[in-house]
Design goal:
Elements (H helix, E strand, L loop, with lengths): L10 H12 L4 H6 L5 E8 L3 E2 L3 H10 L3 E4 L6 E2 L4 E8 H31 L6 E3 L9 H10 L13 E3 L1 H7 L2 H11 L6 E5 L2 H9 L4 E5 L3 H11 L4 E5 L7 H5 L5 E3 L2 H4 L6 E8 L3
Parallel strand pairs: 6-11, 7-8, 8-9, 9-10, 10-11
Antiparallel strand pairs: 1-5, 1-12, 2-4, 3-5
Length: 283
């Protein structure tokens, strides 16, 4: 089980999502059920998935006074029909929390499941699958956690915790070598310098200027392999751009250290997870 991000980084999301969905009250549930009615339900996977987000769902249900018992851990593999968790408490509270809890778990499990597919595709090579900053606004901490649940690694969290010289930085400064040299001179000495390159020549320029890492963007495997050979272990090499499940294995075989995949967080389909009612007390 991967460590859940600090509660303070996502509690506000839970509160905002519940407020958005419930508003002044659940009109249907309050019309049908008495405040004293109690119920029990189970969360179950409808397809094989890698689970992520149960601890967030726990908080969602807790906000409505509902007890939550996880049956598996975040990061575990679940088969179709497997029970992921069970909830019990006030019936209205269960129904008020249902959609919000499922939205979190389905989104995060979808990311974890897709990440696992990419990790499986490069198994046996040195390449590690990493994420990007192409995340849902406000959800970055949780979405990057879901990547870890799926076996991937996190790239920098945000702009403040890494120096990554991209093509627009290079265009603004003039060339890759000058950009790396300036970052080496002015940047924090505690941060590694990574530079995006699009050719062997540009890679050599950035490497000679002192880059710690090269990000090879949108290049075919033969170019990536040449840059890996050029670095010869002097700098970490990451491949990015246009990576998909059909191409990732060939990219991994070039010898790159990392492959960054924006699709992990911007295009992962939601996992199919349902909440099924199992018991009720008289309403």
């Amino acid at each position: 089980m991967t460590t859940v991000p600090p509660r303070a980084t996502w509690l506000w999301l839970v509160e905002a999502a519940l407020a958005e969905d419930i508003g002044p009250g659940d009109a249907t549930s309050t019309a049908l059920l008495s405040p004293d009615a109690r119920g029990e339900a189970r969360l179950e996977a409808r397809n094989p998935i890698v689970v992520a987000g149960l601890e967030i769902a726990r908080e969602v249900f807790a906000q409505r006074g509902i007890a939550f018992e996880a049956r598996v851990a975040d990061g575990a593999t679940a088969t179709s029909g497997m029970e992921l968790a069970r909830v019990h408490g006030p019936a209205i509270g269960i129904l008020e929390a249902e959609r919000t809890a499922l939205n979190f778990v389905q989104r995060l499990s979808g990311i974890a499941t897709l990440t696992r597919r990419y990790c499986d595709a490069v198994r046996g090579t040195r390449a590690q699958i990493v994420d990007t900053r192409k995340t849902t606004p406000g959800f970055r901490t949780l979405e990057k956690w879901a990547v870890r649940c799926g076996g991937g690694r996190n790239h920098r969290l945000a702009l403040f915790d890494g120096i990554l010289i991209k093509d627009n930085h290079i265009a603004a400064v003039g060339c890759a070598g000058a950009a790396v040299a300036r970052a080496r001179e002015r940047g924090s000495r505690h941060l590694r310098i990574r530079c995006e390159v699009e050719s062997v020549e540009q890679a050599r320029e950035a490497l000679e200027a002192g880059a710690d890492s090269l990000l090879v963007d949108n290049q075919p495997p033969d170019v990536i392999a040449k840059i890996v050979g050029l670095c010869a272990g002097r700098a970490l090499v990451e491949a990015s751009g246009g990576v998909n499940l059909d191409s990732v294995a060939a990219i991994a075989r070039t010898g790159v250290d990392e492959i960054s995949v924006g699709a992990l967080t911007h295009s992962a389909p939601a996992a199919d997870i349902a909440l099924e009612w199992t018991a009720s007390s008289p309403s």
